[in-house]
Amino acid sequence: MTTLTGGDPQTQAAIEAATSVLAGRRIAVLTGAGVSTDSGIPDYRGQGAPVRTPMTVEQFLASDGARRRYWVGSHLGWNAFAAAAPNAGHVALAALEARGLLTGVVTQNVDGLHVRAGSRRVVELHGTMRRVFCVHCGQVFDRRDLAARVEEENPWIRVPENVALGPDGDVLPESTEGFRIPVCTVCAGMLKPDVVFFGEYIPAEKFREAEQLVLTSQALLIAGSSLVVNSGIRLLERARRRRMPVVIVNRGATRADTKATVKIDGGTSEVLGALADALPALPS
Predict the structure, then answer these.
(1) Catalytic residue among 75, 90, 114, 126
(2) Whole-prediction pTM value?
(3) Is 136 tagged catalytic?
């Protein structure tokens, strides 16, 4: 058993218990924002998280002013968001998948860090900031190309070296005056990031993909999610109905602590690394 460096006996005991229930099983993983905090991307609900009022899909679609605020803030935060690197937790999950212990990762994050860490089967429940699409004609654009176009059309805009990055890669802009909102180069339609906004439903086919990943597994590991979002609870309940063991790793309480087989109150980078070291290979 790998000992968690600097870990308290209670956390170490919980890791040992989690290793015991996960060993010999193929594991599905659900991750939330807490997995990416060590990469410099804050979460919405964790201890010390900034107070934010996320833009709803209704606001974005209905108002030029709202879209202007969104695109200015999103552009100002894009460089820092895109430069964030996978941390030890992402790397540990990719290593477990490479060893055949994971069936895949379902993530509520839009930062793409699981993919960049080397995870192969990743279901991005809430979409990805890597893409932008036209809500009218459906044309898809790479976010890097759009960022270059935003700067070309708004040469006055300056991206500060240090920004107070938000959970979705945005910052709170001081001013949006004079900003030209990017439009589709095919039909001049409205562009929207390929993410699920607050108030917007997860596409049914995307949830079915996540559900199938869980149902073809033998255990569920939830990391860095407080499970406030209902999609996470739904996947947890799918696992419980099949009597699968559920391990939750999160700093602080979650909505499902009482339903977990094992709850580990700790940082995901350290704990996932310890689990990756401790879990044995599957029996041949």
Answers:
(1) 126
(2) 0.89
(3) no
pLDDT tens readout for residues 122-161: 999 999 999 999 999 999 999 999 999 998 998 877 655 4
Q: Whole-number mean pLDDT of the chain?
A: 89
The Cα-based distances of 214 to 56, 72, 99, 154 in angstroms read 29, 38, 18, 45
pLDDT score, position 168: 54
DSSP letter for each residue of the chain: -PPPTT--HHHHHHHHHHHHHHTTS-EEEEE-GGGTGGGT---SSSTTPPP--PPBHHHHHH-HHHHHHHHHHHHHHHHHHHH----HHHHHHHHHHHTT-EEEEEE---S-HHHHHT-SSEEETTEEEEEEEETTT--EEEHHHHHHHHHHH-TT----SS----TTS----S--TTPPPPB-TTT--BEEEEE--BT-PPPHHHHHHHHHHHHTSSEEEEES----SHHHHHHHHHHHHTT--EEEE-SS--TTGGG-SEEE-S-HHHHHHHHHHHPPPPP-
pLDDT at 165 over 80: no
User: Which residues sit opposite 263 in a β-bridge?
Assistant: 248
**Looking up tokens 């991307």, which residue turns up?**
41
Q: With 70 as the cut, is the pLDDT of residue 98 above it?
A: yes
The residue ranking higher by pLDDT, 6 or 141, is 141
